[in-house]
Amino acid sequence: MENPLNQFAVKTLIPIHIGSYDVSFTNSSLFMLVAFLFIVFLFFVGTSRRAVVPGRLQSAAEMLYEFTANMVEDNAGHGSAQYVPFVMAIFLLVLFGNLIGLVPFTFTYTSHIIVTAALSLMIFVVVVLLSLKNHGFGFFKMFFPPGAPIFLAPLLIPIEVLSFVFRPISLSVRLFANMMAGHVMLQLFSGFTIALGLFGMQLFAGSVIGGLFGALPLIFVVLLTGFEILVALLQAYVFALLTSIYLKDTLEAH
Amino acid sequence: MDANSAKLIGAGLAVIGMGVVGVGLGLIFNAWLHALGRNPSAAPVLRQMGFLGFALTEALALFAFVLAILILLNVL
Question: Domains, chain B, ranges and CATH?
Answer without folding.
Answer: 13-72 (1.20.20.10)
